[in-house]
Structures are given as C-alpha cells and as structure tokens.
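User: Last request for today: this protein with fe (iii) ion, please.
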Amino acid sequence: MSVTEAGREFVATGSREALLARFRRVRQASITMCRPLRAEDFRLQPIEEVSPPWWNLGHTSWFFVRNVLEPFGGRLVREDAQYDFLLNSYYASLGSRLPRSRRGSITRPTTEEIYRYRASVDQRVEDLLETVDPGHLDALSSVLAIGLEHEQQHQELFYTEIKVILAQNLRELRQPYRAVPEEERPVDAVDPLRFVDFAGGLLEFGHRGQGWCWDNELPVHKFYLAPFALANRLVTNAEYQEFLDDHGYDQQLLWLDNGWARLQGEGWHAPLYWERVDGCWWLWTLDGMRPLPPEEPVCHVSFYEADAFARWKSQTAACHRGVRLPTEREWEQAARSTLCEPQEDAFLESDRLHPACAKGGRSLAQMAGCLWQWTSSYYEPYPGYRPFLGVLAEYNGKFMDNQRVLRGGSCVTPREHFRVSYRNFWSAPTRFQFTGIRLVRSEE
Ligand code: AVJ
Ligand code: FE
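Assistant: Here's the final one, the structure of the complex with fe (iii) ion:
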C-alpha cells in the first residue's frame, strides 16, 4: 500500500508533539476503562457480536501494526505475525482470520501478554512518529488519525460489551462495572413531549468544513425534505412501559415481519436489561441493578422495537397520528438548525455511563451524547461515495447493506469522536448498544 493512499484528502495537521500527545491520551483511555475488570471478565464472549475485552485491546493495537507500522517501515516483532490471525477483525485484504464466534474460546495469548503487546505497539508507533521522514509525516498522520478514531469506536464498544458480559452472572452474584456512586436525586418531572417544526426544502447533508470525518459522511450533497416535526426529546421508560402494558409485544400487526420472527425466536418481551423482580421492573446498568427510572429515556431497544413502538404510538391518540421514526436526513437537518452546543454532560467524559433525562426545556433535548437514535434510513452510500483507499476501503463501505443508520452519539461515546454528520449503523435486531427512540411527525 502506498503511504499516501490511505488518508485521501484527510490530512491531519498538527505537530509531531500534538499527535504524540493525542496518541498517548486515546490509547491510555482504553487501558483505564479496563481497570475495574477482574481476570475472568476479559475472556467471555456471551454472543457472537460481543467481543471479549482482551480481544478489544489486542485488535485496536493490531490496527496500528497493519496500517501504520508495516506500511511506514516501523519496527516489527515476532508477536505481530503470531497474533495477526487472531486480531484481524474483517479485513479480507489482510489475510485469513479467526472466525468471529471463537474470540471467547481461546485462552492464549493471555490477557497479560495482550497488555505487553499493547505497550510494545505503543512504543514502536511513538518511535516511528519521532523518526519518520518529514515527507511522510502527513500521510502517517492521516492513518494515525483513523487508528485513533477506530480506537474510540472500540472504547464505546467496550462499554456495551462489558455490560452484556457482566449481565451473564446470576442476579444474586452479579457485580456492577463500578461501585455505585452516591445516589442521584430522583427526577420526577421530565419535559413534556412536544413536536418542533422544521421547514424542509432542498437542503445540504454530509460533513462540511476542515475537520476529520469518516468516508461515509461524504460527499456533501443536496436532498429534498418535506416539512416535518421532530420530537423535542427521546421516548421515556414510562412511555415505553405503556406500550408493554398495552400488550405491544403480543400484537403481531404492530411489528415488521422480520421483527416479529426475532421477537418470537429470542423471546423478547421488553427491552434488553429490563428484569421483572417481585412484580416490579428493574434495570441492569453499569452501576448495577436499579428500579426502572420512569423518566429516563428507554434504552437498549432494537430497530424493530423502536419501529413497533412508533406504530403503536401513532394509533393511540389523534394528536399522534402519523408518528414514525425520523429519516437520517431529518435528524441531521434538525440537529444542524437547532443544536448549537451538544449537552456537554452527556458524553462518555461525564462518566455517567447512563443516559440523562430531558429536563430543562431545551428546544430539542438529548440530540447528542445521550443515546443513539434509530432512523428509518438504510445505511447506504451517499451519492458519489468514495471509500477510503487501500486496505481501509473495507472499513465502512462493505457494510452498506441491510443495516439501519443511527444518529446522535451516546453516553459512552467519547465527546471528540462525535459530529452532527456522524453515521453509526447496526442491523435491525441489535439491542446491546445504547440505542433509543426519537419520534417524528410529517406535517399534515
Ligand atoms: C460503526 C460501530 C458499527 O462495530 O463494526 C469497529 C465500528 N469498525 N471497527 C462496528 C468499527 C471497525 C463499527 N460500528
Ligand atoms: Fe475494529
């Protein structure tokens, strides 16, 4: 792979020192987030989609070996070759791989060996950054930037994965990811549900400006939107519980056919992590079990559940007729025209590890850094899409098939990782991510 290929026009500007500082900071965050874990927690893969933490730490390091050290002439060691087969996630152009479902079935390398491997990769990337020919620095910077954005995606994945892993234990023996901080004061009021009007028209979408973005956020393009009205906040647990109480999970006609099959096959009767104990709903969180907080946004629903909820809601009252999930461009337009500053207390740095309530009367609340919001849009290339070049063409492009777009970021997304044009994507049945529901209504 030619050194100038991978980053295309994204040249990360900044000095070697700034780059080095960012590299250290982002890599260190992955170590810090694993501190509360016990040895056993690192090896479990409860379902195929949930990788064990040892693999997460290894794979993000492997990414720098194959995309930075190798192409730019960094120092290579024996473990690079030994671990390559295990740590390659899905890059067909980089050779054969351990089947994804087997990441929880192996015990070597040990977790300690993976930590040592990480340290070795860090040292070698830092050495390379200090010694690389000035003519190659821009190219190196742009792949390094992709490596760090990748690392941050895996930091978010880590929190969602450890939540599933710890939930496997028997309720009486379960331990939270972290000790519960002092009890937050219960919030009993939440902003009433309102719909905020947006004009529509021939509008511009995609990432603008100089900053970095993924290939899937480009090119900037125009698209016509009819007028619409977006909900001022996310659907709450209390509102979702009305859907349960109205037997939403028993009414086949509310569900897409694939969703209904999934519901039956997996025995869905409530969102993931809702548990019925002695006639009351409880919620599994990274802070342990909590009584279901009615005013918090409903979380860990699949696209199918979000879609069925919207259909149910549209039938409950005349004023809700026609409510549905927004398209990704409706979401983006609303966010662009109202969202001046994202709620700074909402992202990973807030250390809540839990979605915040909508309180305070903002015109649109919970737009960024609370929960990823399912859109009705299929994950497709924007017109004229050009994937990253070289190996990284496989990063996003080949997954543009049979998935839905989510917008908004979540309480486990690093703040600097998010943009208004950011397109997350998951398949419709996915529930273990921090996903929620925002409704929209077309103008009559
Ligand atoms: C954008 C979160 C769907 O988890 O497959 C990680 C992120 N890409 N490594 C995924 C990703 C490559 C991606 N999602
Ligand atoms: Fe990855």
